[in-house]
Prior knowledge:
Order of helices and strands: EHEHEE
Strand order of the largest sheet: 1-2-4-3
Strand content: 15-25%
Radius of gyration: 13 Å
Shape: globular
Number of helices: 2
Distance between the termini: 23 Å
Amino acid sequence: NIFIADAKSFKSYVNYNMFYLYNSFYPDDLRTVLNEIINQNQKKIEILIIYNNPRVSTLKVLKEFKNLFVIGNFDGRGDHRILI
């Protein structure tokens, strides 16, 4: 399915546990989206987020979420990073 919606107010994150982000958000927006994903996870299932080419400012936001764990930090093409 493809959705055209504001990620900050999307109400169907509960239906998914895998997310791919590509340098997608400014820090405040990322914080809001991650809170939505986590808060909608009522079944407390494991969530996998693949974040390709995160900005330095968004890496700081990821560190705020103590319940998120980095299981992979890989070199991508050029100077891109890929976090899992």
